[in-house]
Automatic annotation (TrEMBL):
NCBIfam families: gal_kin. It comes from the Bacteria. GO terms for molecular function: ATP binding; galactokinase activity; metal ion binding. It comes from Glycomyces paridis. One of its GO terms (biological process) is galactose metabolic process. Residues 21-69 form the Galactokinase N-terminal domain. The keyword Flavoprotein does not apply. Gene3D superfamilies: 3.30.230.10, GHMP kinase, C-terminal domain. Belongs to the GHMP kinase family. GalK subfamily. Residues 99-184 form the GHMP kinase N-terminal domain. This is Galactokinase.
Length: 383
């Protein structure tokens, strides 16, 4: 699945499909169409809810939301043949529509009330791949509703509002990484962000100029944030921080140790991952992208062994990529399935892709989807 060559044109094509769906389902033209991308996290995993550091970049795959003000709430998705949810209130909306209802609710809770709207969605962000398909839906809906109802919201604040929707309405205990990436990333850059204050730096990320390519491997093993394991990792971190007398593990001393082995390993991952993020930033500022490969691989080892969020499918993809000559590889996203990334020399991309697909076949795993990642533009109005 190659990435679109012209992300803006691609977003426009998706927006046209969303516009047509709005017109067909609701009988009226939308007042506008807004698009928000999925993301890949280069490095900095499970650090966001520990007030740590992350480095995402936006993918050129988008959720497009065609929207108009209305007398009722109505949500339509083109996914899976089409589904429409209509409701008089925002109470108790479930399934995919909960991400849209949750954003509307969170806007009101945050001092930005919005009235009813009709929203038609069309997205090509891979679902279940750990590439933030849900955050893309949330952020597209959020900027649509804000524009429709005349609210100017700082993008960093908007990310917090979208996170609130996912945490409190949907019930998934995610950090703020995904929404921030979808709203704040810039084309051609990876975003170094401090999740404590959301301060950020857009760091140039031009792989092609160095003869490199970033492959994304969607293992097709579903990635789910709302399950008990993700929540358990966050609870482990909160307990470790409590035992150390700090508000978040980001503040734990580098030489801190805990008697409980599980909590000690969770803490070790967070502390070492933050250091890997800072080391990655330093390398990228110097323009030597290839030098981050070892850090990517070290991140995967830490996530696999200390944080225990990898999976058979992810380990298979990472090991195969490295065995075929990748400069570095790691799982990306929350884990328990989803996607991996591999930094490769451009001329070796086809070889690495073939090795990953073959390794999955030999292990009896689903055939992965492999595509090229490029840093794309963040959320924006298309029409």
């Amino acid at each position: 699945m190659p990435a679109p060559k012209t992300p803006d044109a691609h977003a426009a094509a998706l927006a046209e499909t969303a516009r047509a769906a709005h017109t067909e389902v609701f009988g009226t033209e939308p007042e506008g169409v807004w698009a928000a991308p999925g993301r890949v996290n280069l490095i900095g995993e499970h650090t966001d809810y520990n007030d740590g550091f992350v480095m995402p970049f936006a993918l050129p795959f988008y959720a497009a939301a065609a929207a108009s003000r209305s007398q009722e709430w109505a949500f339509h998705s083109t996914h899976g043949g089409g589904d429409t949810v209509r409701t008089a209130t925002l109470d108790g909306v479930e399934g995919w529509a909960a991400y849209l209802a949750g954003v509307a609710w969170a806007l009101g809770e945050s001092g930005y009330p919005v009235g009813p709207a009709r929203i038609a969605l069309h997205s090509d962000v891979p679902v279940g791949g750990g590439l933030s398909s849900s955050a893309a839906l949330e952020c597209a809906a959020l900027i649509a509703l804000a524009d429709l109802y005349g609210h100017e919201i700082d993008r960093a604040e908007a990310a917090r509002i979208a996170q609130k929707a996912e945490n409190e309405y949907v019930g998934a205990p995610t950090g703020v990484l995904d929404q921030s990436a979808s709203l704040l990333c810039e084309a051609g850059h990876v975003m170094f962000m401090d999740c404590r204050d959301l301060s950020r730096e857009q760091v140039p990320f031009d792989l092609a100029s160095e003869g490199l390519t970033m492959l994304v491997v969607d293992t097709r093993a579903p990635h789910r944030h709302a399950d008990g394991e993700y929540a358990a990792r966050r609870a482990d971190c909160e307990e470790a921080a409590r035992l150390l007398g700090v508000s978040h593990l980001r503040d734990a001393p580098a030489d801190a140790r805990l008697e409980d082995d599980r909590l000690d390993r969770r803490m070790r991952h967070v502390l070492t991952e933050n250091e890997r993020v800072k080391a990655t930033v330093a390398i990228l500022r110097g323009g030597a992208v290839a030098g981050i490969g070892e850090l990517l691989t070290a991140s995967h080892v830490s996530l696999r062994d200390d944080y225990e969020v990898s999976s058979v499918e992810l380990d298979c993809a990472v090991d195969a990529a490295l065995g075929a000559g990748a400069l570095g590889a790691r799982m990306t996203g929350g884990g328990f399935g989803g996607s991996a990334i591999a930094l490769v020399e451009a001329e070796a991309a086809a070889k690495v892709e073939a090795a990953v697909v073959e390794a999955a076949a030999q292990a009896g795993l689903p055939e992965p989807r492999v595509f090229t990642a490029r840093a794309a533009a963040g959320a924006h109005r298309v029409h």
